[in-house]
Specification:
mainly alpha; two-stranded parallel ribbon; 4 helices; globular
């Protein structure tokens, strides 16, 4: 969620829809934020990037880490739809590489 830009970006590696009640709550919160800060009730812009799709219910954490890595690596602030446009499942090689990259990141942060 990017309240300042009035943008909501939804990532779901199972490619499920957004629950109606959740969307209403978030939309209302954004409208209140817009009114309180800018004096208007501009509706939030919702984005659903075409992210990688997992084919089981066990690997969601890896998909979250992959999305986080892609966001940080690409320094994304507004090009969500251009960066995320690959709905294919992560391969075993992709998962191994992801584990290795995150492990190296943590080792670098906490070595010593």
């Amino acid at each position: 969620m990017c309240p300042r830009d009035n943008i909501v970006v939804v990532f779901c590696s199972l490619h499920h829809g957004i629950d109606k009640d959740t969307k209403k709550i978030v939309s209302t919160a954004f409208e209140v934020h817009q009114f309180a800060n800018y004096g208007n009730r501009k509706k939030a812009t919702w984005h659903r990037p075409n992210t990688r799709k997992q084919h089981n219910s066990n690997d969601c954490g890896y998909y979250v880490m992959k999305n986080m890595l892609d966001i940080v690596s690409a320094n994304i602030t507004g090009s969500w739809m251009q960066v995320f446009d690959d709905p294919t499942e992560l391969t075993q090689e992709d998962l191994y590489d992801l584990r290795l990259r995150w492990a190296n990141c943590f080792f670098e942060l906490y070595k010593g």
